[in-house]
Design goal:
This protein has 422 residues and is an alpha+beta fold. The chain contains 13 helices and 16 strands. Helix 1 crosses helix 4.
Length: 422
């Protein structure tokens, strides 16, 4: 990504805001882990989407592009507030982004130290030129502590009751729904790295290997191919651990006759992939494993043959379940439609991008459009057979249909068995 990407994202956001509106997006802070130890910092994805900056304690302040102040003064431009240089702090914690670097990355001309933020905010809100402040107000669960956006909302409500607080998230979600060419290019590169990690695990697999050893193979392949870290905590499991959908224990050992499940991804320029594969630890699918995996593969192939612009988003998950049901019925597992929930435990499609479960404006009736990227995820879990896995690929909607971005990562039975023989 270069500065033009972030400039365009901010321009598109500003064009959505009404006269007299301003917005604030914060990068966040690393939470404390224990005593004086903090978790590694992970910048807010909306902040990164708009600036490209991954510096803790930073704020972006912007204004509606259509705003015309009542006193005919010029509308302020974007302002980025960053922490000042601090040699002692940086000696212990690493270099902070400097103004020139931030300008080059983000394309923002006005870079200020964070000490100026409160003064400038008060100045604008007292000016009479603004009636609303947009903040990204999102909590995954209601009991989460307030982040900076919620604290700013309370500050503004207490001191400037005439200012309306509005949620920025609907606008951000709409922008993030359609990926730009540079995002898709970054994802293609991330798919290659993800494939190297998955292939490394397939080649290393053998009866008696531990989940930790497989995880080490994945991490090593990613880091040797340019990815500093996985896109998300990798899910790598074997045997009965495959029946925990978001398993992160990595304490098991793969036994002969079991299947290994992985749900992993790499990240390039903050664009993430999310790919799942399942394979037998001994390298040869037995009869039941083969039947179930072929059902998942045929279901996935059918979806990639019919996905196209205009299809309702909800149809992707619906058709995955319908097609897989027919295959499981042929195998003899499903007798009626009500049985499908016994073997398919989760949805089959979520968008991917700056987040692995991307924050986008989507619902079941939203028509697919070129530039959308989401997962086609076929998960089958048959506890009585001790077999659980999923086949998950990243689907790019094109002008005429779709493209499987992860198609080159071994995914059919013959490809997997051939890789594991090497």
């Amino acid at each position: 990504m270069n500065a033009s990407f972030y400039l365009q994202n901010r321009a598109e956001l500003q064009a959505r805001l009404e006269t007299g509106a301003m917005y604030i997006v914060s990068s966040g802070e690393a939470p404390r882990r224990t005593n004086d130890e903090y978790y590694p910092f992970f910048a807010d994805r909306n902040f990164v989407y708009l600036t490209g900056i991954e510096q803790s304690g930073a704020d972006l302040m912007g204004f509606g592009i259509s705003h015309t102040p009542s006193n005919n003064t010029k509308t302020p431009g974007d302002t980025l507030f960053i922490p000042p240089a601090d040699l002692m702090w940086e000696r212990w914690n690493g270099t902070r982004v400097k103004a020139d670097e931030a300008k080059d990355i983000s394309g923002i001309e006005n870079i200020r130290h964070h000490a100026d933020f409160d003064r400038m905010l008060d100045h604008y809100l007292n000016s009479g030129n603004y009636t609303a402040v947009y903040l990204p107000l999102f909590k995954y669960t209601a009991d989460e502590p307030d982040n900076r956006s919620y604290k700013l909302a309370k500050y503004i409500q207490d001191r400037f009751p005439h200012i309306q607080i509005k949620d920025l998230m609907p606008h951000i979600k709409s922008l993030r729904l359609i990926k730009k060419p540079c995002e898709i290019e970054a994802m293609r590169k991330a798919e290659i790295i993800t494939g190297k990690g998955i292939t490394a695990m397939m080649k290393a697999a053998k009866p008696g290997i531990t989940e930790r050893e497989l995880r080490a193979e994945f991490y090593y392949a990613l880091m040797m191919n340019g990815a500093a870290e996985p896109a998300f905590p990798p899910i790598i499991s074997a045997g009965t651990n495959n029946f925990c959908i978001h398993y992160h224990g990595h304490g098991g050992t793969a036994q002969d006759g079991e299947m290994i499940l992985n749900d992993v991804g790499a990240s390039v320029n903050n664009i993430m992939t999310d790919v799942s594969r399942g394979w037998p630890v001994n390298g040869i699918f037995n009869k039941k494993q083969r039947a179930l995996y072929q059902a998942a593969y045929d279901t996935s192939e059918h979806l990639f043959s019919i996905i196209k612009p205009g299809m309702p988003m909800g149809d992707v998950d619906k058709i995955i379940r319908e097609v897989c049901f027919e295959h499981l019925k042929d195998i003899g597992l499903c007798k009626t439609w009500q049985d499908i929930g016994t073997y398919m435990w989760h949805g089959g499609a979520h968008h991917v991008g700056f987040d692995v479960h991307d924050v986008v404006a989507i619902n079941a009736t939203t028509p697919l459009a070129p530039g959308m990227v989401f997962c086609v995820d076929v998960g089958i879990y048959v506890e009585e057979w001790g077999i659980g896995f999923r086949l998950e690929d990243n689907c790019l909607v094109t002008e005429t249909g779709c493209e499987n971005l992860s198609k080159n990562i071994p995914r059919c039975i013959d490809e997997i068995e051939a890789i594991m023989k090497k």
